[in-house]
Structure prediction request, 332 residues.
Amino acid sequence: MPLTAEHAAARMNGIGGSELASILHEQIKESGDTVYGCPRALWYEKTGHEQDYEFDESGPIQRGIILEPYIAELYSEVTGHKVARLDHKVGKEKSWEMVSIDRQIRGVPRGVGILECKSVGREIWYQMLKQGLPLRFVLQVQWGFHVLGPQYEWGVDAVLCCDPWAYIFHEVDRDQQLINMMAKKVAAFWKRVQDNDPPKRLKWSDKRCKGCLMRKTCQGAELAKAAETDDEIFGDTEIHETLSDTVATRMEMKGIIGEATGNLDDAEDEIKDVMTEAKSSVIIAGGHKITWIQQDDGTTVDGKKLEKEKPDIYKEYSKPRKGARPLNFYPV
Prediction:
C-alpha cells in the first residue's frame, strides 16, 4: 500500500510488515527464499541516519504502486470478494508494532481477511511456482494478523507476474506460533533501536551490501581497505564513460542469462522428477523424445595426492597451462 508522507513519518516510530524481511533475514535464507535487507541497515534507518549511497530501486517500487489497484480489482473480480482500503494501524499495547495492509477483504463467511498485492518478475514467479509462496510474503500477512487482532484469521497474497502475464492467489491462514516468534524478534530489534545498539554488520562482500543505501556508513572501513588493495593492484584506473551504455547492457544481459538458467534448471528438474516417478529413462513430451540415461562411471587422477606422494612423476607428466583472463565487474 503506498504510504502518505504522514504514514511514512509514522513508520520511523515502529516496524511495518514490509520490514520484517530485514529483521528475519536468517529465517528467510534458511527457507530458500531470496534475502533482501538486513537488521543493521534497518537500524540505521530507524535511528535517523541519512542514506549515503545512491542506488536506484524506483523500478520495482513504482511497478508495485501502479499495479496494486489493478491486482486488488483482479482479485475481487475473480473471487467475488469485496475489498476495501484500511487506514494505517498501530498496535494497541506496543506502539512500535504497526501495519498498512493493501486491502481488507470483506463480506466473506469466514470473516474479514487481509489482501496483500504483489507484482513480481519472472525469476521470483518461476521460483514461487516451484517452491511455493516466499516466506517474506507469508510473514507480511502474519504480521497483519498480529497487529490488527485475533478477528483476522486468514488472508491472501495475490501475486501478478507481468511477463508472462499470469497471476495466482495464495491463501494464508493464521499461524500463532509463527506470529509469536515474529513478535519476539521485532521486540528485540526495537530494543536495539531504543538503546542505540546496532546489530551485527554483514560481511562487506555480501551481495546485499552492494546496493545498500547505508553502504558507506556501515562498511566504510572495510570498503576503504578493499579500495587500498585495488589501488595496489591496479593503480590509477582510467574512466571510459563511452562504455557506460555497453556495460549497462552487459549487466542486463547477465541478469537475463542468470534468470533463464534458473528457469531452465527448474524445467529440467521437473522433467527428471516425472521420469523418476515413471521409472523411465525415455519419454515423449512436447513434441520431443527425451532421454535421461546413466552414463558409465569414469576415473580421474587425484593431482594433489599424486604431487604429494609421487612428486617426480607429477612433475614429469605435468605441462604448463596458460592462465585465464576473466572479465570481472565490480561496483564502484
Q: What stands out?
A: Residues 242-282 form one domain. The first helix runs from residue 5 to 10. The radius of gyration is 25 Å. The first strand starts at residue 82 and ends at 84.
